[in-house]
Amino acid sequence: MPQTIPGKNGEKLRSFRALLAKEIRVAFRGRHLVGVGFGLAIVLSATLGFSLAGTKVGERVIASLLWIIVMFSSSDTLSRSFAKEEDEGTADQLRLRVPMPSVFLAKTLANAFFVLLIACVVFPLLCFWLGVRLSALPLVGLLVLIGCPALSFAQGFVGYLMSRGRALSAAYPVIVMPVILPLLVCLVLATSQALAEGTFSINLVVVIISESLAALVAGLVLVPYIEEE
Amino acid sequence: MVASNLSKSFGSKTIFAGVSFDIEDGVWAIIGPNGSGKTTLLRIMAGLLKASSGAMEWFDKEKKHERFQLPGRIAMCSPDLGLYKEMTVFENARFFADLARVPVPDFVAWGLSGHIGKRYHELSAGLKQRAKLMTAFAVARDVILLDEPEQHLDAEGKAILDNMVSSFGGPVVIATNNPWKEWRKIAQF
Q: Vertex B165, ends B161 and B170: CA angle to 5°?
């Protein structure tokens, strides 16, 4: 029988690092993230860019386009990742080895990274096509940095829930809507304010961070109960 | 591992009822035809499934472990459990070894040294089974549960498996529909 390598403090971190690295490796080697996620982001950005090039587009419209493209390009990455683990029997392998909240957290954090990468494709393309002022970019960039993990955290628990109750998967948009809508509205409002370079309400940022953290903590707390049932 | 009067039903269909056992060190076998509930019983023993009634106690009767307290203590190899098809044999083994905080397994002992760079989905069915068994034995700390472990294995693979089962220090529970030969020699009924 193998003996566990000693070292208490580093053990959980080592497990978690392995989970994170696995998520990133599997996502980049699979077809979905690159083919659908990035593909959709580029096609949507280019289509809108070509259609709207040369026309005067308001800040709120640009902000809406940015976040809607990011959300649609990344919307099912996380729920698909959970469902794929269940289908291929790797979810049970993980259940035998680590507590499921660790798996949930690793998947949600990895997805935040993927959403950020998708935004890194969408954001420069839209800025280029729609003529966003360079002076607005640092604040909008900061909002993208905050908003992408926020979107991922808000989608996390719903994605996990879908994988456990497969009959619910058709209702994903309806179930995720009440969680994601307030966040999306705040992100659009904050980004449009940043693009307009006028008054910027820090309260919106506070709401975005608070809601996303609340969704993440709720997920971490509820996952063991769902597993138990 | 002690089970008292376990039963499992899915809807109105009862898979099994009144199952009791007390498993200590050694090799144990659960033998039965297809659909008799062997895999379901193993999943309950692994803590992956909840029994409809009865009680399952793990490890220390005084402590009364709950299902969600089990991760890391039981290893299982089953047709329902897979490895990551996007990762190589080595990456899969290292990943699960990292989760279990044990060293990477001995690929030579399982006859997989020539395949460690291949992705899991590129392997033949027999080599996939070897990779799954190797991973299960590498991370097994207290108990190992094997569901149809000889599935797809060739004579060499079966010999390796026999050797690993015999040399494992803790309880090994094997579920099979093939009540034959070698396991009878080593299994306690």
A: 155
The number of C-beta contacts closer than 8 angstroms across A and B is 92
Domains in chain B: boundaries = 2-188
């579920």: which residue's tokens?
B175
Which of A7-11, A93-97, A177-181 has the lowest average pLDDT? A7-11
Q: Each residue of B67-125: pLDDT tens digit?
A: 555 666 789 999 999 999 999 999 999 999 998 888 898 899 999 999 999 999 999 99
Cβ-nearest to B76 among A18, A30, A96: A96
For residue A50, is it within any domain?
A: yes
Answer yes or no: is A1 within a domain: no
Classify the complex by whether its ipTM is higher than 0.90, answering yes or no: no
Count how many domains chain A has.
1
The verdict on residue A10 lying in a domain is no
Interface of B with A (CB under 8 A): 46-48, 50, 67-68, 70-72, 74-76, 78, 80-87, 91, 95-96, 98-103, 138-141, 168-170
Q: Is A9 among the domain residues?
A: no
Min Cα distance B3 → chain A (Å) is 19
> Chain B within 8 Å of A227 (Cβ-Cβ)?
yes
Find the closest chain B residue to A16 by CA distance.
B99
- pTM metric for this prediction: 0.86
Cα dihedral sign, A151-A156-A161-A166: positive
Are the beta carbons of B83 and A90 separated by less than 8 Å?
Answer: yes
d(CA A225, CA B127): 37
- Check if the beta carbon of residue B146 is closer than 8 Å to that of residue B75: no
Is residue A49 within 8 angstroms of chain B, CB to CB? no
Measured between beta carbons, the chain B residues lying within 8 angstroms of A29 are: 86-87
Locate all alpha helices (DSSP H) within chain A, ordered by sequence. 8-29, 39-52, 59-74, 77-88, 90-97, 100-130, 137-164, 172-196, 202-228
Q: A213: distance to nearest CA of chain B, Å? A: 25
Using the predicted structure, report yes or no on whether residue A171 has a pLDDT greater than 90: no
**For residue A219, what are the domain limits?**
15-228
pLDDT at A8: 55
What is the topology classification, in CATH, of domain B2-188? Answer: Rossmann fold (3.40.50)
